[in-house]
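step 4 of 6: structure.
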Amino acid sequence: MNLSVVSESLATDTVSLPPLQARDLTVAYDARPVLRSVSFELEKGHMLGVVGPNGAGKSTMLKALLGLIAPDYGGVRVFGQPVDDVRDRIAYVPQTETVDWDFPVTVAEVVLMGRQPSKGWFGRPTHEDRRLAAEALDRVGMTAFAKRHIRQLSGGQQRRVFLARALCQGADLLLLDEPFAGVDAATEKAIFALIDQMADEGRSLLIVNHDLSILGRFDRVMLLNQRVIAFGAPDDVVTEENLRATYGGRLSLLDEADLTLAQRRNERDHLARTASE
Amino acid sequence: MSVTTLLAQLQSEWSQWLLPWDALYLKGTLCSILVGLGCGLLGCFVVLRRMALIGDALSHAVLPGVVLAYMVTGDTQPVPLLIGALVSGLVAAVLINLTTRHSRTKEDSSIGIVFTALFALGIVLVSNLPRGTHFDLKCFLWGEPLAVGRSDLTMMAIICGGVLLVVALLYHRLKLVSFDPLVAAAMGISVGAMHYLLMGMLSATVVAGLKTTGVILVVAMVITPASAAYQLTNRFSVMLLLAGVFGMLSAVVGMSVAFVFNASTGPAMVIVATAIFGLSVMLSPSHGLVFDRLRRVRLARHVRGEDVLKAVYRHGPLSSAPEGYLPTLIETLKMPVKQITRTLDRLRREGLVTPSAEALAVTDAGRHHAEQIVRTHRLWETYLAERMGVDPDEVHVEAERLEHAHDLAERLDEVLGRPETDPHGSAIPRS
């Protein structure tokens, strides 16, 4: 593939290479395609929100991007390189249901696990690792819970702990699977503040998401239903027509209400911005 | 067997308890202890990763490998048998994986199909061994510590040492892979390699320990001590430690029990391990039955004390003689006389009610406490009526229950905007 030649010649200049690049990504389970020819590019410091109905292949896409499942066709480049070569620059925040919250570990221990990849096989956490973990816990506002057992956390707190673990990996590219599912308004605000901050620091984020009302807050939005229905700035992409194409008329009244409100808010924000300029 | 003969047996055959330490059985005993330790440690991973069925499968699936190794070498030297067993175990793991992936069969069914098939194949092989050879199937199934030789013990010691070393060195990595395999894989850690490493260590330990517990029950030595440890702690390191100790304890005590009751050693060890598990379920500090019961009893006592105090506060002072105050209290509290007198005694000791020589009334401390209860009661009534839309006529019963949670009174007061009166118009006392 030409891409690899290009990436080698540019290897020294990693700054200009996009943090995440998918080309014709196609995944099928039992010959039933779940992801068809997905191509997109995530720019440095951008937040990309991915939405689509259940079964649209959002989680499958995340796994394919992370190299956890092999695509049937197409490929992924992270900072211009194969995923396996740059895993230390990627952090993955899965849905909280994927782990057993009865597992005998404390909050601090879970966060400290984020330092594990930087160690070898026999690596033990150092003083520096513990400091980074404590710092990450502090950034998500969970310091008071450090010594608690993870069973004692609420859903929102679990998500924050996962975010802290990703933070302390020190990654430049973060892939988040539904970080806002089932959290209260205050937690959603706190999580958004945190990921805004990360984007400001020059990190790039891909956020799989269910809530249509917050799409306006992302730099880029992808509407996904097996294939990419639309990709671009939220104002251009989030239209009723596109959403109908994505959700296939399965858009509930509630979603439509959310959408109308969000559009109005976007317009208002836009007006406010132009007015202030 | 009646209780008296049982006791007599326990007493007269005291020396039986020490029989496992006799030179004749010492090797078997030591080997069992090492099995307990190794299985206990590895059991923590099996239990937390929900692979109990895999543990059972592995121990059964090794049979054909062991028999084939025996057929080839014509000998029961432990090393070839171990190799045969490991190959067999690995084949089982791969077959389970393949069956799950390439058919509609779910994993638990695949495990069931593969391990019973391999076990059955092993049994068929045993029945077809050439005449004159002696393969002790019973020993394989139920364990026979007398059969443990020096080479068995040496091999077990090496395997157990290896397990300890690997778990200690890879502790953090194993913890991560067990807790969150998905993220571990995304971090580039080879989850598959860790899985097969654990499976390999488990098969080795199980096979080396077959002569002590036998193939049928060895899975209990893997799951039961680890599950007992899981009840008692929230720390992974402590769980590993406890599981190891419980495993060794089950082995030692189990051996003695086997001699005293003239039973097979494997089943005896399993029964001891299960007893430890039962105890840990009852004694677990966070969700154990004993502590739970204790908390309930304490709460009931607390509630009774406050109810009696409130009655004395409301109706006092009453005559000092029991005949004088008891009818009133029984009428209000609907409590047995004995409970009332006992609770009054306690309240007197705590200085909330006047001493028995004087007229029955609350002391200053008692009044303060009673007013707190009344305050909480009325705040709850207000909350239920105003915020939860409960009919004011019905709030009393619920408030009667909630009034004992007065830690919440201050917050309740704040939330309600410090109301003056309750829904019935009674004043809410200020604290």
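step 5 of 6: annotate
 - The radius of gyration of chain A is 19 Å.
 - The beta strands of chain A are 20-29, 32-42, 47-51, 73-78, 90-93, 173-177, 204-208, 220-225, 227-232.
step 6 of 6: archive
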